[in-house]
């Protein structure tokens, strides 16, 4: 088997695995191997072992391929500071002792960085095939959850746990919003998913989904700001009427643990205020270096006697790895967002869609991390890393304009979103015709 064939097989394996995780989410969460080890922990371990084998294989198969390529590419690399973060996290954890939770958390951080590294070596035209698969997968998930909502009503949690469903739905929305173009099924899917997120009762995901859907990916300057403001106003108005007309939503927001107060309006904190105060108080005793991976959950267990998470990833990073670890992670994460944003600039052939998809996904997961434990969910971090890696694999706008196989742009470079949507629409119609 030559290098090209080997690389294609690895691409198919990595993409298939990512789509499988995007489809299933944390459906295996209720299953436990022992009292202290869940199937989720075992899956995380297997994925980590797989990526430890996969990354050297990709590096070997792609060695020297850049010089032989007929079309120049300048893939941007994973920020080195994220690898430094992984080294710091591992060293800090070994210093303070390890456990199953510690290894699981570090594995999820590694899976995020490792999946970016793996997918950044993929073909630059891989994004369309990935997006086509996400459309089909997204409608499948939406259909299954619609059936669950019909059977169980508001907050349904059958095949998909509602938190898992909301996180996966946000990632699918991030892909579909910029790739939608002129295809009505692609344009409709984000709205359907946002509606289902709302009916799932996941409050943070509702707000994040509304933010993502409000952002206009078309045009630029004043036109983009106007579109974004108009979308935000419509979505905000729809959310307001949904809140005042739905007793279920009112119960989710305004009953229970009313520890939060926003402009005189009490909000349900669901115990987060207590968890945050416990973790914050303990973190202050060693604020610079922290106590190692998994220590935040361990402190909560000692104080409350329950197996719980901090429900704030930035607070967890501070407690576990100190200001040093938190700073390394934030700088690396923001650098990824900057590089994805840079990828959107100056494209003249509709090549900005995968960069915007990655940027929206990073934004969405970053916002979810304020009230959730999303950074230690393998089913979120691997697909997120894949989307960012696909963005980094694309040629930069300067490379695109210099390419001898592409026509030079006339006038000011612009993003042609219609061409992306039309291309994805043709791919979907071709698949439909073959199936019929």
From TrEMBL:
Spell out the residue ranges making up region: Disordered. Answer: 395-414
Q: How does it sit in the membrane?
A: Multi-pass membrane protein
Q: Name one Pfam family in it.
A: Wzy_C
For this protein, the record's InterPro entries field holds: O-antigen_ligase-rel_domated, WaaL-like
GO MF annotation, one:
ligase activity
Keywords in UniProt for this one? Ligase, Membrane, Transmembrane, Transmembrane helix
Does the record carry Calcium as a key word?
no
Looking at the UniProt entry, the stretches that span the membrane are 37-61, 81-97, 165-182, 188-216, 228-246, 321-341, 353-370
Q: Does the keyword Phosphoprotein apply?
A: no
Q: Where in the cell is it found?
A: Membrane
Q: Which residues form the O-antigen ligase-related domain?
A: 192-330
List, alphabetically, the PANTHER family matched: LIPOPOLYSACCHARIDE BIOSYNTHESIS PROTEIN PA4999-RELATED, TEICHURONIC ACID BIOSYNTHESIS PROTEIN TUAE
Provide the protein name.
O-antigen ligase family protein
Q: What organism does the UniProt record list as the source?
A: Streptomyces yaanensis
């Amino acid at each position: 088997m030559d290098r090209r064939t080997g690389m294609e097989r690895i691409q198919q394996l990595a993409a298939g695995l990512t789509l499988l995780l995007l489809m299933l989410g944390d459906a295996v969460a209720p299953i436990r191997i022992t009292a202290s080890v869940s199937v989720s922990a075992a899956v995380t371990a297997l994925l980590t072992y797989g990526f430890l084998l996969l990354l050297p294989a990709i590096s070997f198969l792609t060695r020297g391929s850049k010089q032989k390529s007929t079309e120049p590419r300048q893939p941007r690399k994973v920020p080195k500071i994220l690898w430094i973060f992984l080294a710091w996290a591992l060293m800090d954890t070994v210093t303070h002792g390890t456990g199953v939770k510690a290894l699981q958390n570090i594995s999820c951080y590694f899976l995020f960085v490792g999946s970016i590294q793996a997918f950044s070596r993929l073909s630059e035209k891989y994004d369309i095939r990935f997006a086509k698969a996400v459309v089909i997968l997204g409608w499948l998930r939406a259909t299954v959850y619609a059936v669950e909502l019909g059977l169980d009503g508001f907050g349904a949690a059958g095949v998909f746990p509602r938190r898992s469903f909301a996180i996966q739905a946000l990632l699918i929305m991030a892909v579909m919003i910029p790739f939608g173009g002129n295809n009505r099924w692609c344009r409709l899917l984000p709205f359907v998913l946002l509606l289902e997120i709302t009916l799932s009762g996941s409050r943070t995901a509702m707000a994040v989904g509304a933010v993502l859907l409000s952002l206009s990916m078309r045009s630029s300057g004043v036109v983009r700001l106007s579109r974004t403001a108009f979308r935000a106003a419509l979505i905000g108005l729809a959310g307001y009427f949904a809140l005042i007309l739905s007793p279920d939503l009112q119960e989710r927001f305004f009953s229970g643990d009313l520890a939060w107060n926003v402009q005189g309006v009490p909000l349900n904190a669901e115990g987060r205020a207590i968890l945050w105060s416990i973790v914050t108080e303990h973190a202050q005793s060693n604020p610079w270096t922290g106590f190692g991976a998994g220590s935040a959950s361990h402190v909560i267990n000692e104080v409350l006697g329950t197996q719980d998470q901090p429900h704030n990833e930035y607070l967890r990073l501070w407690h576990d790895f100190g200001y040093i670890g938190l700073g390394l992670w934030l700088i690396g994460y923001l650098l990824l967002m900057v590089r994805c944003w840079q990828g959107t600039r100056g494209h003249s052939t509709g090549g900005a869609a995968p960069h915007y998809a990655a940027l929206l996904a990073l934004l969405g997961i970053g916002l979810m991390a304020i009230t959730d434990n999303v950074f230690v969910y393998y089913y979120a971090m691997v697909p997120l890393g894949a989307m960012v890696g696909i963005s980094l694999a694309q040629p930069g706008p300067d490379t695109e304009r210099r390419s001898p196989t592409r026509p030079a742009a006339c006038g000011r470079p612009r993003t042609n979103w219609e061409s992306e949507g039309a291309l994805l629409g043709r791919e979907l119609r071709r698949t439909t015709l073959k199936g019929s």
